[in-house]
């Protein structure tokens, strides 16, 4: 084959910026580059070439072994060359082989499977984490709650007795199996932290109508501990933030939150069922707990986070006038609130109210959750503790 | 053989078109979604390949040779090197604070802050180095053999010196860091040099620096004058009944003016400074016999950012539309099947919220490639070079090439050039 049948091309050798004008000829298993003066500059095997880009519709090739080496065709390669030259890369190896739609489908399947595995795993993994580890973690995280934990001997004893009443394992251990404390923080809330630590906020005690109401909330938190929800959610957060770490900042964070919240609500429902069950076993009247959730729904509670302000405001107004509303309005309120519950951490209060109310059985002789004397010392525990720090609102939580 | 930048046109040019770029951006987005973000790195490479190959220097296009795998590895490295200690410190500090060791927690936080600052400096240096080492022109690439540790320390102390005299030496620190960074870079066998001087920047910097002070003095005088006026009006109001309203109205509009000043006017004045800064620093950059310059005026920069703002605005409107529709649909509610209490609703919720999230995020996520395209085109169209370059003597760079991309910079979310 002589030079006249060659294809014109430009060539950079990767060692200087000099642009060589060459003609490209076929050689065995590769190409021969011939310079302007008809001298052969070099040869290259098809197998060593990589497609780099198209310039003006014509391909430019690189060499696997020399990074700056370029061969750019200035006219279309011959048919025999084209058959052996490496193909253009569009999206990257796997995607080009499968084709875009098939590759996208495959990726989607793998991604959904990965998310499902990462979401479900904590349920299996959490019980395997030794409880002692979790306890140590709880100690590290909580400490003395910045000196805000209230303590009097009588008040704590009253709380421990309630704990024993609601939890079989605590009953065996004399009421100190879990670590239930009251924190001098003016929020209507209670939290279950790693290691069986349950903190009841003073604000909740102050607003509670009765010890039965407190019992319902405490049993709910005990449910979180016994079902290992805390460890589960820690693991889930960790796993999802790892899995979704590749997604650009906010979208990944938002998706993580949504997935975690969805599971959070399931955990809340689970803890509610636990509470209902333990309350029934201890023969404690669930009415006040049901009532508590109804009041919370009237207050449009603290974790009904935004998104649909108009809708939320409506719910608030209607729920407040509660009983006075005709049946249909009430149903609408319930449905509106349920709709909102998809963007909150807790199940709709209407559902919780109904669930607790529904567990009340006629003919059962309910007993007080705690003696009046216990209730009194518990209510005044924070006031009676001279050392406790005061806090009007949640510190780091 | 000498190649002169053409006399009639700029040595740099950009010939990309939106029609060609859009399919790249769209397919990148689709692939990024289905891979939970992993494809992002390969998408970035496709974007850069397009932008680089449509950018011309003198007579040849640029050529991006970085790979997605590199960027991915860089990301993983920064996640481990940076994310893990950060995670531990974050939790440790919280625990320490809760247990009453506030001082130690504060110390650790301060140390972490300095470390992060140092890492930002190193990351800036290394991002520039990485990009130069992956940019080929006529088969030759750039780079640097300096690992950028020294630059990290310079970044801390020079910024500190810049801020210490009440921020008056910020232009000095910016220019000095630019010079330090570029002096370490090379292209092929040639070393860059940068000898920018901050003196010429001070007038514009002082304009930015003093404008809030002047503004507050003016507001203060206005308040006093207004106060006297209001007092007089108040007396009149007391006579005629109801004099409080004008005062509230004045305060509300004053707050509005202050906010507008801070978020709109002040950045614009910064742009006046920044336009000059960029002209000065690029104008002092040389590579052998090549002298670079940058032609964008304040007005050009302003138009660039107004365009960005318009794109953001349009994307926000588009992404808010589905939310508005869904909220409206929820108002009706009856048509939507909502699982009852007791049933597990996870699947339903995840599907619904993920769908909603996608609707919101897609237009906003597309803003990124739009802006990167615009900024690159802006950069290329305003870059100029004079002098000559001997392509025969421009031989291949022997600097080290890292096999990991600008992960640290990615993690810290700071720009490179």
Molecular structure report:
The complex is a heterodimer of chains A (397) and B (417). Chain A is built from 16 helices and eleven strands. In chain A, strand 10 (190-193) and strand 11 form a beta hairpin. Chain A has helices at residues 79-84, 93-98, 100-125, 131-142, 153-166, 168-172, 202-207, 211-226, 229-243, 249-281, 287-299, 309-320, 327-341, 349-358, 372-379, 381-384, and strands at 7-12, 20-27, 30-34, 40-45, 49-55, 58-63, 70-73, 149-150, 179-183, 190-193, 197-201. Residues 300-328, 339-343 and 393-397 of chain A have low confidence and may be disordered. Chain A is of the alpha+beta class. In chain A, the strands form two sheets. Chain A has a seven-stranded antiparallel sheet. Chain A has a four-stranded mixed sheet with strand order 8-9-11-10, with helices on both faces. In chain A, helix 3 (100-125) runs antiparallel to helix 9 (229-243) and helix 9 runs antiparallel to helix 10 (249-281). The longest helix of chain A has 33 residues, at 249-281. Chain B is of the alpha+beta class and 417 residues long. Chain B is 67% helix and 10% strand. Chain B contains eleven helices and twelve strands. Chain B has helices at residues 18-34, 40-53, 68-98, 102-133, 149-163, 170-183, 202-240, 245-283, 298-332, 346-382, 407-412; strands at residues 2-3, 12-14, 55-57, 60-64, 135-137, 140-143, 186-187, 190-194, 285-287, 290-294, 383-387, 389-390. In chain B, the strands form two sheets. Chain B has a ten-stranded antiparallel sheet with strand order 2-3-4-5-6-7-8-9-10-11. A two-stranded antiparallel ribbon of chain B has the order 1-12. In chain B, strand 3 (55-57) and strand 4 (60-64) form a beta hairpin. Chain B is globular, with a radius of gyration of 27 Å. The chains are: A alpha+beta (397), B alpha+beta (417). Chains A and B meet through strand 5, helix 3, helix 4, helix 10 and helix 13 of A and helix 1, helix 2, strand 4, helix 3 and helix 9 of B.
């Amino acid at each position: 084959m002589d030079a006249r049948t060659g294809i014109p091309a430009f060539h950079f050798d990767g060692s200087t910026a000099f642009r060589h004008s060459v003609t490209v000829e076929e050689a065995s298993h590769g190409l021969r580059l011939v310079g302007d003066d008809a001298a052969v500059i070099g040869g290259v095997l098809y197998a060593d070439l990589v497609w780099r880009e198209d310039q003006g519709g014509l391909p430019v090739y690189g060499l696997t072994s020399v990074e700056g080496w370029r061969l750019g065709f200035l006219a279309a390669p011959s048919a025999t060359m084209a058959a052996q030259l490496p193909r253009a890369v569009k999206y990257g190896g796997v995607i080009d082989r499968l084709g875009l739609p098939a590759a996208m489908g495959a990726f989607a399947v793998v991604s959904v499977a990965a998310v499902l595995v990462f979401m479900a795993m904590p349920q299996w993994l959490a019980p395997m984490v030794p409880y002692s580890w979790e306890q140590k973690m709880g100690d590290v995280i909580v400490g003395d709650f910045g000196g805000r934990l209230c303590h009097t001997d009588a008040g704590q004893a009253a709380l421990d007795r309630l704990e024993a009443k609601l939890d079989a394992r605590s009953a065996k251990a004399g009421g100190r199996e879990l670590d239930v404390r009251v924190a001098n923080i003016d929020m209507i809330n209670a939290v279950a932290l790693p290691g069986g630590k349950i903190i009841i906020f003073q604000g909740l005690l102050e607003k509670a109508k009765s010890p039965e109401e407190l019992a319902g909330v405490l049993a709910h938190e005990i449910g979180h501990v016994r079902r290992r929800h805390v460890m589960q959610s820690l693991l889930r957060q960790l796993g999802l933030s790892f899995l979704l770490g590749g997604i650009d900042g906010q979208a990944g964070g938002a998706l993580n939150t949504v997935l975690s919240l969805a599971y959070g609500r399931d955990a809340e429902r689970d803890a509610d069922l636990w509470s209902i069950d333990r309350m029934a076993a201890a023969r404690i009247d669930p009415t006040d707990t049901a009532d508590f959730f109804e009041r919370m729904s009237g207050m449009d509670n603290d974790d009904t986070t935004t998104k649909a302000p108009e809708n939320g405001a409506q719910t608030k107004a209607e729920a407040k006038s509660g009983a006075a509303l005709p049946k249909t309005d009430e149903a609408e309120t319930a449905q509106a609130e349920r709709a909102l519950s998809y963007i909150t951490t807790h199940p709709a209060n209407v559902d919780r109210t109904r669930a607790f109310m529904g567990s009340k059985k006629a003919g059962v002789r309910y007993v007080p959750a705690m003696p009046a004397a216990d209730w009194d010392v518990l209510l005044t525990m924070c006031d009676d503790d001279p050392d406790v720090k005061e806090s009007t609102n949640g510190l780091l939580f | 053989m000498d190649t002169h930048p053409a006399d009639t046109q700029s040595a740099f040019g950009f010939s990309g078109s939106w029609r060609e770029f859009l399919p790249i951006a769209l397919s990148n987005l689709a692939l990024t979604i289905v891979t939970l973000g992993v494809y992002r790195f390969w998408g970035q490479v496709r974007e850069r390949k397009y932008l680089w190959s449509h950018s011309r220097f003198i007579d040849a296009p640029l050529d991006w040779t970085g790979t997605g795998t590199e960027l991915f590895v860089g990301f993983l490295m920064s996640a481990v090197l940076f994310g893990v200690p950060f995670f531990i410190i974050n939790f440790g500090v919280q625990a320490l604070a809760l247990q009453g060791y506030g001082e130690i927690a504060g110390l650790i936080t301060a140390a972490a802050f300095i470390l992060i600052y140092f890492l930002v400096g190193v990351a800036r240096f290394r991002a520039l180095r990485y990009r130069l080492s992956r940019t080929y022109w006529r088969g030759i690439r750039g780079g640097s053999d300096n690992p950028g540790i020294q630059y990290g320390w310079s970044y801390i102390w020079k910024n500190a010196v810049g801020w210490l005299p009440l921020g008056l030496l910020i232009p000095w620190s910016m220019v000095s860091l630019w010079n330090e960074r570029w002096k370490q870079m090379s292209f092929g066998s040639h070393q860059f040099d940068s000898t920018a001087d901050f003196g010429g920047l001070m007038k514009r910097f002082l304009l930015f620096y003093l404008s809030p002070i002047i503004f507050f003095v003016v507001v203060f005088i206005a308040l006093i004058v207004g106060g006297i006026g209001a007092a007089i009006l108040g007396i009149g109001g007391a006579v005629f009944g109801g004099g409080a309203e004008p005062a509230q109205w004045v305060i509300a509009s004053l707050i509005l003016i202050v906010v507008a000043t801070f978020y709109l006017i002040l950045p614009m004045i910064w742009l006046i400074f920044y336009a000059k800064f960029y002209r000065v620093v690029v104008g002092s950059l040389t590579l052998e016999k090549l002298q670079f310059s940058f032609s964008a005026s304040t007005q050009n920069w302003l138009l660039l950012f107004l365009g960005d703002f318009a794109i953001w605005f349009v994307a926000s409107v588009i992404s808010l539309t589905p939310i508005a529709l869904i909220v409206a649909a929820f108002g009706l509610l009856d048509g939507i099947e909502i699982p009852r209490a007791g049933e597990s609703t996870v699947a339903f919720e995840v599907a619904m919220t993920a769908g909603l999230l996608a609707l919101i995020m897609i237009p906003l996520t597309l803003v990124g490639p739009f802006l990167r395209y615009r900024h690159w085109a802006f950069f290329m169209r305003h870059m100029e070079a004079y002098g000559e370059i001997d392509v025969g003597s421009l031989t291949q760079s022997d600097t080290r090439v890292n096999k990991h991309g600008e992960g640290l910079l990615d993690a810290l979310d700071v720009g490179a050039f």
